[in-house]
Amino acid sequence: MNITPTNTTLSDFYDIVAPDAGAMIETLRAFGYHLETSIADIIDNSVFAGAHNIWIDCTWAGEMSTIAIRDDGCGMSEEVLKNAMRPGSKNPLQDRDSKDLGRFGLGLKTASFSQCRKLTVGSKSEGNGIAIRSWDLDYVNECGEWRLIRPNKENIHPVFSILDHQKCGTIVLWEKIDRMIKGTDINDEKHQNHFFEQLDILKSHLAMVFHRFLEKPNGLKIFLNEKEVKPWDPFLRNHPSTQHLPPEYIIYCGKKINIRPFVLPHRSKLDDRTYELSGGPGGWNERQGFYVYRNERLIVPGDWLGLVFRKGQTIRKEQFTKLARIMVDIPNSFDGDWKIDVKKSVARPPNRIKDKFQRISRLTIEQAISVYRYRGKVSERNNDPSFSFPWSTSVHHGMYHYSINREHPLVSDILRNSGNARKKIQAMLRIIEETVPVPLIILNDSTNPDKIQRPFEDVPPAELKSVLEEIWKSLIESGIPNADAKKRLHHMEPFSDFPDFVDNFILNQTGDN
Domains in the chain, ordered, with CATH? Predict the structure, then answer.
């Protein structure tokens, strides 16, 4: 039915209400980016452009500081660049290249606007000259229009001359970086230190987000102020004590989602430097959970995705689950289903497959808890009666009680040969058991988990040897053969953490390896 009366035009039935340029562009600044997530968004474009090298140059000059991101990708022609500078240059509903790391056509602009008030992009594609366009937010506010500046030769920043020496590539330049350096003094050491502290955070973030690109032979290289960014592997895949649980896959909408669970080694299996590095940005507790990748680019760096563990309780990041990390690979066609946002920082599995993710998370968490509680020796303990712990745990009427293991070789030997002192020794053991400072241990373990001293950590070897000698005597005097005694020592806390020391000790005692 035609609802348009005669003598009228279609424009009589609607108004064109364009957004105010100044107001909209300031709104685009409020997406909640940090420096590191902003630059990661810029790098996404470089990766999609086929770049082999990306250089990030951060120059400290107080309020005149600049950040330039340069690549050797395919570059853009004049028309392509102009469209790329348009806010909303892509419709997220349209099909796109399977390797595309973007979705909304906003990343370059929103990421840049969140950090600076002047964005200039220069690009050179093969066979074309250098094209340069600039957004100056102060100028947009002043004129009230979406005026994309075409800089003249006198106003072009010197950094863009680098493109003269490249066959192709792109440079993104940030000036007026108000969110980071507004009000700073070039001569203020505190301001300068803060600037470079942010770069340290940036380096760690890029090493994490793009680690799968950086790990490949002849793959991507990223340089931050001329220093190469090395990849950070969240899963410690090359460590002998890392548990690679069986990989799984889920078919969703005809496409495969690959899932690879890992349980990382207990603290006792890692040297201090490896332990510190393996914690990653934010530390061990923060980095547990699912790692969601889209086209090998990390979207979610450790999160339990709002999943439920048991009895309807949402999985939380706890100290005892921190060793669980699960790799998930999804195609970019699932962005809408997974609710991936503009910043590429949030993802949630579709309801149809959420139960599968909950099952995988439970299996991984249970194994991680076992490793955390038993220092990675739970399977040995379950299958080998010679595995001996000094402490035992019991539950009575729902209450946990910790007691000294009376079957431990040294305890058993002392009690057996204590004579008239037996009652006093038993009383002493009971006092120790009843006064274990459990609340204080729990508090310290939750607030400063990495400051809990490990058994015989930083003590002279002679002290460890003196304790080892008494245990050895107790085992031999009870009639246990040398070979069995050796095996028991290797399976006994805390000597199981010092296998080489135990071997040398036994060699000196028996002359046998």
Answer: 21-228 (3.30.565.10), 243-374 (no CATH), 391-510 (no CATH)
